[in-house]
Design brief:
Radius of gyration: 15 Å
CATH architecture: Roll
CATH superfamily: 2,3-Dihydroxybiphenyl 1,2-Dioxygenase, domain 1
Strand content: 35-45%
Structural class: alpha/beta
Number of domains: 1
């Protein structure tokens, strides 16, 4: 019998690697673990993460684009982020051109801000108070 111990990483197909790295690294603040590099098949990849969890980003010319109105394959990704009050987070994201589509949301004892990544993937930013 299998007994999972952790989730090592998830992988996202992206249609614009530069926009994806800007969103996940520059705006959301995930560490850039492996910078953008080219593959032998004409695509590109990069890895971002927090702690021991990673998001692998893959871009290839044959990927079918998706957007917020036509999501493909996943509902959302949830990232726990250290942040100030929700209103400040919302203002910051909007100033960076990120579309906030549901916020602030208080459920299960947490406050979250829901945004779209550059490919329309729903990203939940679960706010943790700064320590």
């Amino acid at each position: 019998m299998l007994k999972p111990k952790a989730i090592d990483h998830i992988a996202l197909k992206v249609t614009d690697m530069d926009a994806a790295v800007r969103f996940y690294h520059d705006i959301v603040g995930l560490e850039l673990i492996r910078p953008i590099n080219k593959s032998e098949h004409g695509g590109r990849s990069a890895v971002v993460g927090a702690g021991s969890q990673r998001i692998d980003l893959f871009e290839r010319p044959d990927f079918v684009s998706s957007d917020k109105d036509k999501p493909i394959g996943m509902d959302h990704v949830c990232l726990v982020v250290e942040a100030g009050p929700a209103e400040e987070v919302i203002d910051y994201l909007k100033s960076e051109g990120v579309e906030v589509f549901w916020a602030p949301v208080v459920r299960h004892g947490h406050t979250s801000v829901y945004v779209y990544d550059p490919d329309g993937v729903h990203v939940e930013l679960q706010l943790a108070e700064r320590s």
